[in-house]
Design brief:
Bound molecules: zinc ion
Distance between the termini: 12 Å
Largest sheet: 7 strands, mixed
CATH class: Alpha Beta
Radius of gyration: 18 Å
Number of helices: 8
Number of domains: 1
CATH superfamily: Ribonuclease Z/Hydroxyacylglutathione hydrolase-like
Strand order of the largest sheet: 1-2-6-7-8-11-12
Structural class: alpha+beta
Number of strands: 19
Order of helices and strands: EEEHHHEEEEHEEEEHHEEEEEHHEEE
Helix content: 10-25%
CATH topology: Metallo-beta-lactamase, Chain A
Shape: globular
Length: 295
């Protein structure tokens, strides 16, 4: 299990899936096949499958343990959820909760869940199936959602012309948490606790938040889908097919990279391949990921 020390905190990666899962040229409309040879030294086998031309995007949560508190950042796709639009995620059955337990945490011991945004692969384990109903998986947790994302998707979901949104996940993985009264909606920049601060980073979704972490002078940035793949460190102008607003997504990506390169904050993405986290350095006018001595 990947384990990172950040000051007084321990951060563990809780895997849901890790396999070639998205056709690179579909995922990145600006995909340039020449990058495969240019970055061959690190791209294979962790980040790209040359045979299929598919990206290897990990889907995982970060479990942060600090000061006796347990915080889960982004909750993947979830089990048993109907997702016919994406066959790999349809009625999934993974051992995600067993992996959480292997990290020493039972669902009832999670104090806080934070969703960087409300897309289908970031909210799934918010709920689980119980006698035909979707109920909060982490019933003692406060769930931090972005107000801007919630309002945006609520409106689209409520309109028969556009709903259900996000593959149905808004209804089965977001609304039940709201109805249970477990949410803490954040608007604008907000200090969540001694270590965590959220800041708006709109673009991928209207309400995407960047989670800035600090403990004993050590910093990290939990970036959600501000970046999906390590190639975007070299190509911050590349948006994914799922980025809602192109200019904002590029701006937020550059700001995240600037923050990490300028402050030494460790980048903690949701979808990068192994080793799943890196530091960022300036190089000329751009950036490079530094995976070595990552731990
Ligand atoms: Zn995602």
């Amino acid at each position: 299990m990947v384990e990172v020390k950040l000051g007084a905190a321990t951060v563990r990666r809780i895997e849901e899936s890790y396999e070639p899962n998205f056709d690179a040229k579909v995922f990145f409309p600006d995909w340039d096949p020449a990058v495969v040879d240019r970055h061959a030294g690190w791209l294979m086998p962790g980040h790209y499958d040359r045979e299929s031309g598919f990206l290897k995007l990990s889907i995982h949560s970060w479990l942060v343990t600090v000061g006796g508190r347990r915080i889960l950042i982004d909750t993947c796709v979830g089990n048993h959820k109907p997702r016919p639009h994406r066959p790999k995620w349809h009625l999934m059955e993974t051992r995600y909760l067993d992996r959480l337990k292997a990290a020493g945490v039972e669902p009832d011991q999670v104090d806080m869940v934070m969703c960087t945004h409300l897309h289908v692969d970031h909210v799934g384990w918010n709920t689980r199936l119980d006698n035909g109903r979707w109920v909060p998986t982490f019933k003692n947790a406060k769930y931090v959602f972005s107000r801007a994302d919630y309002d945006h998707y609520l409106k689209l979901d409520s309109d028969p012309a556009t709903g259900p949104v996000n593959g149905g996940s808004f209804r089965d993985s977001v609304l039940p948490v709201v109805e249970a009264g477990l949410t803490q909606m954040v608007e604008g920049a907000a200090q969540i606790d001694d270590n965590m601060r959220v800041e708006p980073a709109p673009g991928h979704t209207p309400g995407t938040i960047a989670i800035k972490f600090e403990s004993k002078g050590e910093k990290a940035l939990f970036c959600g889908d501000i970046l999906h793949h390590a190639l975007q460190v070299y190509h911050p102008e590349w948006n994914s097919f799922a980025c809602a607003e192109a200019a904002g997504a590029r701006r937020s990506r550059r700001e995240a990279l600037e923050h990490c390169a300028g402050s030494g904050a460790r980048l903690m993405p949701c979808h990068f391949g192994a080793p799943f986290t890196c530091h960022i350095e300036h190089k000329g006018p751009g950036f490079v990921p530094r995976f070595q001595d990552s731990f």
